[in-house]
Structures are given as C-alpha cells and as structure tokens.
Design brief:
single chain, 79 residues, alpha+beta, Arc Repressor Mutant, subunit A, 3-stranded antiparallel β-sheet, 3 helices, 44% helix
Length: 79
C-alpha cells in the first residue's frame, strides 16, 4: 500500500493556528470538526503529529482533559 502525500496551498500547521485563534481553547475533536468545515481532510493521527510539532515549537500548549481528549491552547507571548 502506498502512502499518498497531500500538497496544501496553506500548510496544515498554519491552518491549525488560524482555527485556534478563531476558536480560542478547544479540544482536539472540536479542532478536527473546524478543519473539516474549512475543507481540510485531516485524520486524528495527522492532527496529532501537527499538534506535537506546534507544541515543540512553543506555539501551543496541550493539556490533558477528561475522557482521553486533549485541550489545546494558543500560547500567549514568546515561550
């Protein structure tokens, strides 16, 4: 089975940051739904990888929430 790469006009991480700025803090499920409304076809695995990269860069903070969900917040100011 071949893996298919999707070329995006706007990088997924940028789309995520734009969605988070509009939503404020949200869960990963809410973020998936928001990205789906914008026409982004993102699986939970791809979203998780992109969120980890954004967290490592210090742009967002991931917090554990009930029922295995994660709460996502945009970091204010510089880390």
């Amino acid at each position: 089975m071949s893996t298919m790469k999707i070329w995006r006009l706007i990088p997924l991480q940028q789309r995520i940051m734009e969605a988070l700025r509009q939503l404020g803090s949200c869960t990963d499920d809410e973020l998936l739904k928001a990205l789906d409304r914008e026409g982004e076809n993102v699986t939970p695995e791809i979203l998780s990888k992109a969120l980890l990269q954004l967290e490592v860069r210090g742009l967002i903070r991931l917090l554990g929430a009930p029922k295995g969900r994660r709460k996502i917040e945009v970091r204010q100011g510089k880390p």
